[in-house]
Design a protein that fits this description.
By secondary structure, this protein is α+β, with helices and mostly antiparallel strands. About 35% of the residues lie in helices and about 15% in strands. It has helices at about 20-30, 45-50, 60-65, 70-80, 90-110, 170-175, 180-200, 205-220, 270-275, 295-305, 345-350, 370-385, 395-400, 415-420, 430-435, 440-455, 465-470, 545-560, 565-570, and strands spanning about 5-15, 35, 55, 135-140, 145, 205, 225, 230-240, 240-245, 255-265, 310, 315-320, 355, 390-395, 425, 490-505, 505, 515, 520-530. Strands 1, 2, 7, 8, 9, 10, 18 and 19 form an 8-stranded mixed sheet that branches. The longest helix has 20 residues, at about 90-110.
Length: about 575
């Protein structure tokens, strides 16, 4: 490589997701000089195209609203939900997260960050000891990207729902616009926001873009260097210590690090070779919904220097749908030619539909979290070879009341039926034959389901037993808002596949976010956070935004350790009892 630049900073940060920002802000607060290097043309990483939620137990906003929580209660919940002693999810790792996360929220607010708490967004396993049935989540308010000036067009945004000023948690109400007054009020509020933005000439962004847009503004205010289209093509190592990075792109050269290099560069969701080596079958990047830069080269560079990896077969699953012939349905193709797979976790929680495998049998609680659904699908496929694809079975009541994909509630685009993406038949027997499902098995499954709907008790898969299940159902349906019969023809079916929004496996790190070798020793000067790492939560997602909040924490901790200030983070939370 022809070197044209040779610069030195205290902390070199690779990537621009949430953990990269917290690391940069922490380093700056410590009097250090950080730099962010992002290989893509837009800032924000996977965080910017996400739902933009943080899961922070015992956070300051809960305390301000008088909602009781504690670190010990949250630890009880995590221990029950994760139920494994993986070395990258040790008690020390969990303690670091639970101590630092609330303090980090305060740190960010003191620097101008704004959050609100979306009440009613329960933990995903609220029935477990320590589970919170209301909300430990935080989000960023709507943000006018024009406040970023020249950086506004360089902020990454989700292609799905672009221009809709709706927070993630508000979609549940919006989906019920034809069923509830709350849904109608939400639709009116969305229109009010759009009109207000138009009158003001604002460029409103929401969810992940609002979170990253506000965090980006904090970086710009502090004049922290950010370089886009600056791919890291190599790690500089000498005598076992990482000294910096080699950068490609239009400004190739060397960027040296006095204190350390933080890898916050995502995982390998779009790398078919690495996916095939992960052990999950089938494994393909074709279904992923993660950002286009999630290609795994940073992970490989770290591994070439002896870094240990774990949990590589785990991704942040979310079920999607597409035609059996490989084509994507109308509504998923974006103006720039890319595909934005739908994420159906809210669709699947609505009544009058069930999910079955290729044998016509239910195998999961359809209202469960997206991660749980993905794990259940792979488990079932490993057992039977007949769960990828699975099938969502809906009746005409469902199609008259609820949305699907990007279609408005009560609409079924003719293109879906004509292309074969959505199957339709006047009987379950006929529908099963079109889908290649055993008709008798499907009919028996639906008969059991319909009988269970009468008393609202799903003894097979326990749908609707959690608060989390019920808040995404239809409150006008009883006795269980998560359950509704599949009884009125014509019937519809859609093939379902396991998409993902990032990796849950990667580099093994210690509680200070230092990258470890196979023998457990730390690679000096090398840190990692976010989807580049083996997740603290292993194969479980405890609540909305858990992976983003963990990335923020680990970036913050890494910056302190690299600056020789580990004792500062060690002291956080120690002055109070948990």
């Amino acid at each position: 490589m022809t070197t044209t630049t040779d610069e030195t900073f205290d902390l070199v940060i690779v990537g621009s997701g949430a953990g990269a920002v917290s690391a940069a802000l922490a380093a700056h607060a410590l009097g250090q000089r950080p730099i962010l290097l992002e290989k893509q043309a837009r800032f924000g990483g996977s965080t910017a195209i996400s739902g933009g939620v943080l899961w922070v137990p015992d956070n300051p906003l809960m305390a301000e609203e008088g909602l009781p929580d504690s670190r010990e209660r949250a630890r009880t919940y995590l221990d029950a939900a994760i139920a494994t002693d993986a070395p990258f999810s040790s008690p020390e790792h969990r303690d670091t997260f639970l101590r630092i996360a609330p303090a980090l929220v305060t740190f960010l607010r003191e620097r101008g960050m704004q959050f609100f708490r979306p009440d009613g967004w329960s933990d995903y396993y609220d029935e477990l000891p320590g589970g919170e049935p209301r909300s430990r989540c935080l989000m960023a308010p709507l943000y006018d990207a024009k406040r970023l000036g020249d950086w506004a067009p360089r902020l990454a945004r989700s292609p799905v729902g672009a221009g809709l000023p709706v927070h993630s948690h508000e979609l549940t109400d919006l989906f019920l616009v034809r069923r509830t007054w709350r849904g109608k009020r939400m639709a009116l509020e969305m229109l009010r926001r759009r009109l207000s933005a138009w009158l003001r000439g604002a460029d409103l962004v929401t969810n992940g873009a609002a979170l990253q847009g506000r965090l980006l503004s904090l970086l710009l205010e502090r004049e922290i260097p950010i370089r886009l289209e600056s791919p890291v093509v190599g790690l500089i190592e000498d005598a076992g210590r990482i000294l910096g990075v080699e950068v490609g792109g239009e400004r190739p050269g060397v960027v040296r690090a006095r204190d350390g290099v933080l890898l916050n560069a995502g995982g390998f969701s779009r790398n078919d070779r690495l996916r095939s080596e992960s052990g999950r079958v089938p494994a393909t990047s074709e279904w992923t919904a993660t950002n286009l830069g999630d290609t795994g080269e940073i992970l490989e560079q770290a591994c070439s220097l002896g870094a240990a990896t774990d949990n590589l077969d785990a991704f942040w699953w979310v079920l999607t749908s597409k035609n059996l012939d490989g084509t994507w349905p109308e509504g998923t193709n974006m103006p720039d030619g890319s595909v934005a797979p739908w994420m159906h976790h809210l669709d699947l929680a609505l009544p009058h539909s069930i999910l079955v495998d290729g044998r016509g049998e239910r195998f999961c609680n359809e209202s469960a979290s997206y991660m749980e659904l993905g794990e259940a699908m792979f488990k079932r496929h490993a057992e039977t070879g007949a769960a990828i694809p699975a099938w969502t079975i809906m009746d005409s009541v469902h199609r008259a009341r609820y949305p699907w994909g990007t279609a408005l509630p009560g609409t079924t685009p003719s293109e879906w039926l004509e292309s074969g993406y959505m199957k339709r038949a006047d009987s379950l027997e006929a529908l099963a034959k079109v889908c290649g499902i055993d008709p008798l098995s499907l009919e028996k499954t639906v008969d059991r389901w319909n009988a269970a709907c009468a008393n609202g008790i799903d003894s097979e898969q326990h749908r609707g037993e959690r608060v989390f299940d019920r808040i995404h159902g239809d409150p006008t349906v009883g006795p269980n808002p998560s359950m509704g019969t599949v009884a009125k023809p014509p019937f519809h079916a859609v093939p379902m596949f396991p998409s993902d929004v990032g990796c849950a496996g990667g580099l093994v790190t210690d509680p200070y976010a230092r990258v470890l070798r196979e023998d457990g020793s730390a690679i000096e000067g090398l840190y990692a956070s976010g989807n580049t790492t083996a997740s603290l939560f292993v194969k479980t997602y405890p609540g909305a935004g858990a992976s983003i909040s963990a990335s923020l924490v680990h970036g913050f901790v890494a910056a302190h350790h690299a600056a020789g200030q580990a004792e500062r983070v060690d002291a956080i939370g120690q002055e109070t009892t948990s």
